[in-house]
Amino acid sequence: MRAKINHNKEFLINSVLNNLSNEEINPLDKNKLSIIRKEKTYRPIIYIGAGTCGLAAGAGKTISATKEYITSKQIDAEIIEVGCIGLCSSEPLLDVQMPGFNRISFEHVTEDKVENILDSVLKLETPETEILGQFPKSDSRSWDKVSSIYEHPFFAQQKRVVLKNCGIINPVSIDQYISFGGYQGFLKTITSNSSIEVCNKIEKSGLRGRGGGGFPTGKKWKFAFNTKADQKYLICNADEGDPGAFMDRAVIEGDPHRLIEGMAVAAYGIGASKAYIYIRAEYPLAIERLKIALNQAREYGLLGKNIFLTGFDFDIKVKMGAGAFVCGEETALIQSIEGKRGMPRPRPPFPAVKGLFGKPTIINNVETLSNIPEIIVKGEDWFSSIGTESSKGTKVFALSGKVSLTGLVEIPMGTTIREIIFNIAGGIKNNKKFKSVQIGGPSGGCITEANLDIEVDYASLIKVGAMMGSGGLVVMDEDNCMVDISKFFLQFIQRESCGKCIPCREGTKRMLEILESITQRPSNESSNAALERFKGILQLERLGKVIKETSLCGLGQTAPNPVLSSLKWFREEFEEHIFERKCRAGVCTELRTFKIDVDKCIGCTVCAKKCPTNAIIGSKKQAHFIIEEKCIGCGSCEEACKFNAISIR
Amino acid sequence: MEDKTIKVLNQHPNSKQDSLIPILQEVQDSEGYISEKSVIKIGEHLNISSSKIYGVATFYNQFRFQPLGKFHIQICRGTACHVLGSASVLSTLEKHLKLKSGETSRDGLFSIEIVACIGACGLAPVICVNGKFHARVTEKSIIEIIENYRKENDESKN
């Protein structure tokens, strides 16, 4: 086994990586490549989606069931753990590549289904259930009555650039990455292009930062390139802290070499020889795969001193974050790597001029850097042909919430939000009514029914009071309360504010208090609390604006966004909470009141026994009543009633 | 205890402040928390004052400064529990164990944590000890529950 790997390494380095003159490779080498790509195989290959999401859905058990199956039946087959293809709601996913056949993919493969599926596939029969689709290839036989996976509604409208290899190739095999064209762009660049040419190329492509701000990447690189220093640094920001965003994790778990290659090109462009990947400690699997990939790249001479005899030195260190959302901010992140409290500092000087250890530093997000290898190989014109006037390329979104299909989707810029939610994600779950979609996490805003047709584009999202952010899309239906969502984000910001600036530290606390007061059951309506509540909504808006204008860093400047945008589009819902003391979604439990239908109540006393506050009275076999003053709206009685006699008023 | 910290520090020779967070992470991994002694040792190693190290460590959510007790008590302070007297249960508990919430007792047996709502309002007031729920706790029964755990611990020792 070991000898074979070395053989592959020699072949890949000599015939693929060192052959940059675009010479037609001979048929023998072509054959070798397709074996490394696992497209030609003499034995079945079983791929199992084992990203964090897959493992949570039970992929671990599927893997052991599969292993057991092949050992007990003595089948010569290979099992490969891959990253996530993006369709999280269909996990665990299992693919089988039979010799000479198209790769076929199955969904919801829990451990009990492994045997049935493998039984038929190994006999070359199409199984009856759980088929997701097949990956069509011209030179292999296709499965009968199985549609192409690219026709699946979830994949049909996607354009996968960053996620191209995720869930397809073995993430910890550098051989496979190279065999699909990996690292060739990087080597071509360092042998035949100058640094400024790389910066120009990226600037011309129109790539903008995918971490939220949307600053043109090439322009940023040029700042660092033009600053003279004995040492420059590149930092990859993988501190993905937004609740509802997980694309960085999926890219690193599914295709770590793409990120490494992107970083190597970026470092060459700005003239950095050292780089850091700042990754959350909460992503153990991503860290593990990243470290394996880095060691492989060093072994192949793609990282280290004098890379491929070009004189370019470059290496990458992994730094684990320690759980602070604010460290996603550039200057705070630098402080954290230096071993200090992760607090932002004023800019300028910008990190591109004076950053890590006082040296010029470029910080790019995982998705931004993962776009680089494709731009280098396919050219800046190819990249700028995708997307809209001001936003080029694709964007990965993490879809979650009340949609039928959840997961990661990569779409060209300019796709409408409606298309993403209703075509790709299959619409709202359980035929409920769409309410809004939160984009950009705690820094973003919500998009309502009326704005669903806006195109995904940096400028147009800002126009409706939202922002691209890192790309979390949380879909909400009629059962969600906008006041509650606003409260949730404020609680999050309160926990994560670093405490440096007063507007962010104290202001968000006041905003949270206002929202708490309007969702709380008041003990005495005539007290000061009632007055405060009425004033609340007026103060809320003004306070939000002050926090936005006076905070130092991105966290504070965007912290009031979720509240302000909910307030803009769902003002009547806030007013309902304040004046009518009612939560139409029934989420704010303290505002719920229950009533007992006297015709349905048989007087079984179950609810009265369950009630934690003794708010239900009534004698046996007589209809019961709820004393509203005592009721805390916990809903225990509604759950307990077997006769559906209790409902929300 | 200290040996583990020294072991970690030996793996970071000639390091500066930028190694502080990785060192803290490794110390917590091997000891379970960051002790005062570790903070001082790390300070001597990196030539940084211990107050600065404490400042960095408290900034990040990842770091704990007290080991969890053998019996970790989560007490629900949700609305339903509050109405039925969880506040007095909490104060009895704190008085009985001579502990505040967020702390661990000296013998390492008990630690208290306040949680927002466990979601068992019908059983209020609720406490949860090492994942096991105790329903309808009163000022009286909380002492019994605690003493039962103490007894259980003593018996397992013998």
In round numbers, the mean pLDDT of chain B is 84
Given helix and strand content, the structural type of chain B is alpha+beta
Number of contiguous helices of chain A: 26
Assembly type of the shown chains? heterodimer
Residue stretches of chain B low in confidence (pLDDT < 50, at least 5 long) are none
Number of strands of chain A: 18
Q: What kind of sheet is the major sheet of chain A?
A: 5 strands, mixed
Overall, the morphology of chain A is: globular
State the share of residues found in helices of chain B, binned by percent: 40-55%
Low-confidence stretches of chain A: none
Radius of gyration of chain B: 19 Å
Computed over alpha carbons, the radius of gyration of chain A is 28 Å
How much of the sequence lies in strands of chain A comes to 5-15%
Per CATH, which architecture of the largest domain in chain A? 3-Layer(aba) Sandwich
Count of distinct structural domains of chain B = 2
Total number of domains of chain A: 5
Strand content of the residues of chain B, in percent? Answer: 5-15%
Q: What is the name of the CATH superfamily of the largest domain in chain A?
A: NADH-ubiquinone oxidoreductase 51kDa subunit
Strand order of the largest sheet of chain A: 2-1-3-4-5
Note the main attributes of this structure.
heterodimer, A: 649 residues, alpha/beta, Glutaredoxin, Rossmann fold, Ubiquitin-like (UB roll), five-stranded mixed sheet, 26 helices, 41% helix, 13% strand, globular, B: 158 residues, alpha+beta, Arc Repressor Mutant, subunit A, 2 domains, four-stranded mixed sheet, 7 helices, 4 strands, 49% helix, 11% strand, elongated
